[in-house]
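go over this chain:
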Amino acid sequence: MARNLNRSRRWILIGGCAAVAGGFAIREHRLIPPDYSGRQLSVQDAHRQAVAGDVLLLDIRTPKEWQSTGVGEGAQSLDMRRDDFIPALTQFVKGDKGAAIALICARGVRSARLSNRLTEAGFTNIIDVPEGMLGSAAGPGWVRTGLPVRDYDRSAV
């Protein structure tokens, strides 16, 4: 009886450890951006080029995130989860798939993934901003750098 109880405890412990390890693996996969071999910009350069009109800077986060931190000065907000994201983006750039488009998200994970997807979809000048709005391994991010933000205007999306 005691032997069976020890085996049960051992299997429960092994199962619990496996669940924890699996959870960490999923978390890390979601937080580590995929490789993007295209151009990248720091948040300072993205801001400067967006304000100068040299690049279309797209904040691809969600409305809830825009409300939380604001939208970077010079950026356009376009939720990447929209069903019509690519047609909306194509409209932003007036059909020019070679236009310079920089993508920013919270921490650089979604922007890297979307940069890859848009490149595969035929956009030829996609630029990733890997620091994101909140910072990442690439740098402190837009907010902590102190770059200007504007309040999110729900009617502008």
In short: Residues 1-31 form one domain. DSSP finds six helices and seven strands in the chain.
